[in-house]
Amino acid sequence: EKGNFHHFMQKEIFEQPTVVAQTLRSYLRPLERKVALPQIDFDISAVDRITIVACGTSYYAAMVAKYWFESFARVPVDIDFASEFRYREPILTKGGLALFISQSGETADTLAALRHCKAEGQTIAVVVNVPTSTMAREADLLLPTHAGPEIGVASTKAFTCQLAVLAALAAHFAVKKGRMSAEEEAQIVDHLLEAPAALNAALDHDEDIKAMAPLVAPARDVLYLGRGPDFPLALEGALKLKEISYIHAEGYASGEMKHGPIALIDEHVPVIVLAPSGPLFEKTVSNMQEVAARGGRIVLISDAEGLAEAGEGCMATIEMPKVHPLIAPLVYAVPVQLLAYHVACVKGTDVDQPRNLAKSVTVE
Ligand code: F6R
Question: Which of 103, 114, 153, 160, when mutated, tests ligand 1's pocket best, judged by the most ligand atoms within 8 Å of its CB?
């Protein structure tokens, strides 16, 4: 069932262009250039606060979604880890929407948070990959991802499909709230439709990533840096590396580095910088220079423009296609997944069944 692939995780990484396209098909109408959501029987324009709850990689999708809901629809979004949310007496206002993100639809903490919100009268929306799951059954609004079964314990294709659904949902909110014109909506649809080809272009760099993985594999600690909607990708990259290669890794918002983690930097700590060219690029480059000045070894992941400007002096560079900022979090997921994958292969760990981890965490 793995076909030509060595591991399910690898196969699932390579399926992303197909499954993201498949997922987008149920949320977009390409010819009309409109977002199309399942029948929603509550008034979106009345929703003035969204609470998003999830765990692990699904939580990082929530972090990206917060940027989108707030910037497109100007709706304030609270996000929380399910394990924290359920015990912190969250403030839920009447008429609020609670959104749960889960690949399995069975994660115990997320499900408990869902039931708490339901009891508090919130409208319950879920983004889930398993359509027969408990969360899918208990939702008022079911927003499925069509990633297909995810076997590798480390989540990959479910994450990019979650992002695809969340981008469409945020645009839908913006339209309903009168914050997005038909032309802006059409452009969002066009950009989302570019995602599958851009994911393919990112996957084309698999061999380059495999070739540089031996530079990262001996490290004891690795730092990932990103900004804005790509900051959660730094967290996701660090999580993937920890999970399957057992190397200690941390993700940081680029600008936070000088507030502490820079103390860790020396020639033994690879620093993976996620930086698509664009308005925030210069800021990230100056953070990179701070790392370089302390002997840190940088792996810059950027597009041709970014690499031309700042690639010199890096230990390695990974080229990504130049994409619209909206789809950058989907596209930059690929190199961090592949880097973790190839580093784990160098180390010879059990990629699909990492120690101590279960695919679905159904106990608290
Ligand atoms: C990371 C990973 C976990 C899950 C988390 C939530 O690679 O697999 O962090 O993302 O356990 O699981 P779901 O999405 O099934 O609720």
Answer: 103
The predicted pLDDT at position 350 comes to 85
ipTM of the complex model: 0.99
Q: Nearest to residue 315, comparing CAs of 236, 205, 239, 219?
A: 219
Any idea which residues carry the catalytic annotation? 359
Which pLDDT score is estimated for 43?
85
Cβ-proximal residues to 314 (8 Å cutoff; 6+ apart), any chain: 297, 298, 299, 300
**One-letter amino acid of 33:** R
Judge if the beta carbon of residue 243 lies within 6 A of ligand 1. yes
End-to-end CA distance of the chain: 32
Q: Ligand 1, residues 55, 132, 362: which to mutate, most atoms within 8 A of Cβ?
A: 55
Cα–ligand 1 centroid distance for 229 (angstroms): 20
Please calculate the CA angle 284-237-218 and round it to the nearest 5 degrees. Answer: 100
The model carries a pTM of 0.97
